[in-house]
Write a structure and sequence with these properties.
By secondary structure, the protein is an alpha/beta fold. The chain is built from 4 helices and 7 strands; from the N terminus they run E-H-E-H-E-H-E-H-E-E-E.
Length: about 120
């Protein structure tokens, strides 16, 4: 499975890519929305991991633009819960992590805040 990792923090991107590769994924890294857009147009990815805090365009704007252009690549959003709440994202339930299918804490975000996509955030 080939993933695109969109993360501007080089150290975090390297750590995340190494962890994903350790689980058998093929991972390409980009560090900006512009590079992500180019990569997604030129390569057929099975999924993407997206940081919302990109330097050129915020990740939610990138996601909105991709969906408007007809790109339906599955995307996992990577960001901090408190930042999401501060930016107006609605966390479903009581806002506290619950144990997910793999016994790891997860949060679910309201689909209306993310282009109609139910977002599940896993704490690692």
């Amino acid at each position: 499975m080939r993933l695109l990792l969109i993360e501007d923090n080089v150290r975090l991107a390297e750590y995340t890519a190494t962890a994903l590769r350790g689980h058998g994924f093929t991972v390409d890294n980009v560090h900006s929305a512009e590079d992500a857009d180019a990569a997604l147009r030129s390569t057929n990815y099975d999924g993407a991991v997206l940081d919302l805090g990109l330097p050129d365009v915020d990740g939610l704007t990138l996601l909105t633009r991709l969906r408007a252009d007809g790109d339906h690549t599955p995307i996992l959003i990577l960001t901090a819960r408190d930042r999401l709440k501060a930016e107006g994202a609605r966390v479903l339930g009581d806002g506290e992590p619950k144990l997910g299918a793999h016994d790891k804490p997860v949060l679910f975000l309201h689909p209306k805040d993310f282009c109609g996509t139910l977002i599940e955030l896993e704490q690692v």
